[in-house]
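Inverse folding, one chain.
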């Protein structure tokens, strides 16, 4: 089923009234002579995309940074005394439950979220959910039982469900396929700053212990929740709409520049045209097997990313016997290394137009790193393993986002696939938090083994997709039927 296209592209009734002539784009002149494109020199084109990058990628990346900070600060709060104060222990598995329940609602509300961002627009939709989860984070600082915190985590999952798939989808609508991974990497890189320096920030906030009658771990939640609410107000001023809408709605490109951006997208994959939303057509995208292959890949890589995000401070403190201060601060260097790997890979992946081999390379690096962390005894070697494992799973996130976007056509199909992909990531979060059990401390060998197996399965799935894409592309070369409903479209390996 994966090599057949669904015949519906995208759209909503909101999109009527755009200033861009869609029929002209579809039947326009050749790319090299199209007046919407040749109106700008190469230097001018680069300047336009730099403005798009600053307004779109940087803004979304900063919001993602706050999202990750709010989602993964449980580990920092844990070593700051949260488990003790809220009665979490190995008997009731309170910490695991609090970590876990978030992902149920986070996964459940994903499909609705990608429909909602089209219905209400990125600015209103993203701003509202960010402000709401900021309020929930504030509530974390005032709970007195782990059961209450678990309830708030369920609510947090509802609001955060729309953010990441919404951002991934919005980014994919603005860039041609082979210019996307650099942007996905920058978006993810800015967000990962939260993971890199969240521990250092948390350690600083812990020093407020006793101020205002609040424990240090409570200050982590209250300050970060306040920052989230403030960011939501700023985000309302900066978030841009979909590129095919009138530039009057985002006011940083002229109409001529907007036409240039949309024309390039249309030539790249011919899916700018929109149609009204129909539930049956939207759900029919689930008949495509590669949609679920991408979801499995993201589920397996996020099993690693969430496990590291939630448990790395705890492993550094309990397993490698670092002090609380060192455990919080030593989280940062592996994420800095991840950023370097991510940027280099994004550049060459776009240049070489390769996606799957990059994912496989990262999986192999993750297997090596997890092996060193879980089965060696020297702390220096184990910490080096942390570097490899952290870089591998984090670099795979933007790689997989781009792998999926490059091989899917149609606005609603990409919306559906973004939801299933990030929904798979939520399930990965469930796995990552459940396989690291308090009873397995301080080594957490079963959890590390589960992450090793996840990387191995990813290699097999990429091999299957590569075989599938190769067969489909051969049919295109032989003059056979179209794939993804567009003549000449070929899958990206």
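Residues assigned per position:
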């Amino acid at each position: 089923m994966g090599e057949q296209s669904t015949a519906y592209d995208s759209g909503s009734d909101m999109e009527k009234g755009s200033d861009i002539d869609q029929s002209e784009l579809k039947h326009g002149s050749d790319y090299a002579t199209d007046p919407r494109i040749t109106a700008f020199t190469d230097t001018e084109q680069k300047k336009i995309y730099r403005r798009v990058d600053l307004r779109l990628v940087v803004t979304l990346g900063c919001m993602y940074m706050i999202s990750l900070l709010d989602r993964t600060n449980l580990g920092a709060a844990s070593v700051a005394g949260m488990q003790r104060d809220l009665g979490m222990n190995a008997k009731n598995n309170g910490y695991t439950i609090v970590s876990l329940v978030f992902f149920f609602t986070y996964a459940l509300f994903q499909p609705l979220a990608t429909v909602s961002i089209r219905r209400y627009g990125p600015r209103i939709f993203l701003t509202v959910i960010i402000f709401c989860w900021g309020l929930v984070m504030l509530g974390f600082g005032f709970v007195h039982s782990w059961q209450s915190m678990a309830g708030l985590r369920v609510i947090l999952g509802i609001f955060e469900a729309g953010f990441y798939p919404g951002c991934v989808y919005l980014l994919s609508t603005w860039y041609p396929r082979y210019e996307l991974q650099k942007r996905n990497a920058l978006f993810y890189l800015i967000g990962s700053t939260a993971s890199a320096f969240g521990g250092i920030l948390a350690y600083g906030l812990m020093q407020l212990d006793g101020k205002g009658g609040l424990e240090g771990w409570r200050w982590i939640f209250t300050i970060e929740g306040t920052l989230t609410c403030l960011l939501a107000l700023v985000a309302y001023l900066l978030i841009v709409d979909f590129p095919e809408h009138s530039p009057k709605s985002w006011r940083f490109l002229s109409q001529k520049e907007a036409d240039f951006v949309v024309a390039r997208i249309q030539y790249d994959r011919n899916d700018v045209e929109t149609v009204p939303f129909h539930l049956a057509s939207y759900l029919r995208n689930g008949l495509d097997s590669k949609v679920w292959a991408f979801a499995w890949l993201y589920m397996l890589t996020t099993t690693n990313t969430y496990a590291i995000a939630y448990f790395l401070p705890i492993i550094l403190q309990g397993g490698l016997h670092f002090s609380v201060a060192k455990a919080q601060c030593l989280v940062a260097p592996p994420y800095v290394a991840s950023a370097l790997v991510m940027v280099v890979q994004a550049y060459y992946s776009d240049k070489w137009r390769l996606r799957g081999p990059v994912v496989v390379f990262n999986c192999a690096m993750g297997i090596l790193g997890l092996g060193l962390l879980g089965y060696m005894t020297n702390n220096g070697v184990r910490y080096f393993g942390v570097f490899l494992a952290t870089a591998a799973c984090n670099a795979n996130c933007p790689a997989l986002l781009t792998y999926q976007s490059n091989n899917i056509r149609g606005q609603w199909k990409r919306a559906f696939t973004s939801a299933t992909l990030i929904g798979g990531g939520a399930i990965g979060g469930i796995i990552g938090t459940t396989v690291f059990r308090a009873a397995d401390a301080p080594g957490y060998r079963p959890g590390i083994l589960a992450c090793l197996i996840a990387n191995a399965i990813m290699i097999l799935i990429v091999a299957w997709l590569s075989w599938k894409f190769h067969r489909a592309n051969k049919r295109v070369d032989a003059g056979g039927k179209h794939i993804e409903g567009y003549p000449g479209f070929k899958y990206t390996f």
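The chain has one domain: 38-269+282-471. The CA atoms of residues 305 and 393 lie 6 Å apart.
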